[in-house]
């Protein structure tokens, strides 16, 4: 069974622009292993992570207006039951609604939260973009 999600490359990926500078851009320009690199924000990416003892699903999608949407779902503490949705949201806000919801006591980077700073994941995204 193929468990790799379908990652979508968009027209906006033809230009290297940082989403932190332009909300309509399709990349993060981040530091990975002491070097700065362009990491595409690809609809179809999903990750499950534990934040403050709750299981969260973070995913990237695309709206009908071609805006990149950042979606999150809080499933609570039971990692064996992903049907119990505590809260969720989907915005073109680079997960700012999640950061507000979780109420982190310190500043947190979205690239750290979504694990895109690892060189293997950055490499996988860039390979998908070249297809």
Features:
single chain; 131 residues; alpha+beta; 4-stranded antiparallel beta sheet; two-stranded antiparallel ribbon; 6 strands; 30% strand; globular
Would you give an account of this structure?
The two termini are 21 Å apart. The strands form two sheets. Strands 3-4-5-6 form a four-stranded antiparallel beta sheet, with helices on one face. A two-stranded antiparallel sheet has the order 1-2. The chain has one domain. It contains three helices and six strands, in the order E-E-E-E-E-E-H-H-H. It has helices spanning 96-102, 110-113, 119-130; strands spanning 27-32, 35-40, 46-51, 54-62, 68-74, 87-91. 18% of the residues lie in helices and 30% in strands. The longest helix is centred in the last third of the chain and has 12 residues, at 119-130. The model is unreliable at 116-129 (pLDDT under 50).
Mean pLDDT: 81
Order of helices and strands: EEEEEEHHH
**Helical content class:** 10-25%
Content of β-strand: 25-35%
Note the gap between the termini: 21 Å
In DSSP terms (H or I, runs of 4 or more residues), the helix count works out at 3
- Beta strand count: 6
Characterize the largest beta sheet: strand count, sense, and whether it forms a barrel: 4 strands, antiparallel
Number of domains: 1
Principal-axes shape call: globular
Q: What is the radius of gyration computed over CA atoms, rounded to a whole number of angstroms?
A: 15 Å
Strand order of the largest sheet: 3-4-5-6
Question: In terms of per-residue confidence, which ranges show pLDDT below 50 for 5 or more consecutive residues?
Answer: 116-129
Quaternary class: single chain
Question: Which class best fits the helix and strand makeup?
Answer: alpha+beta
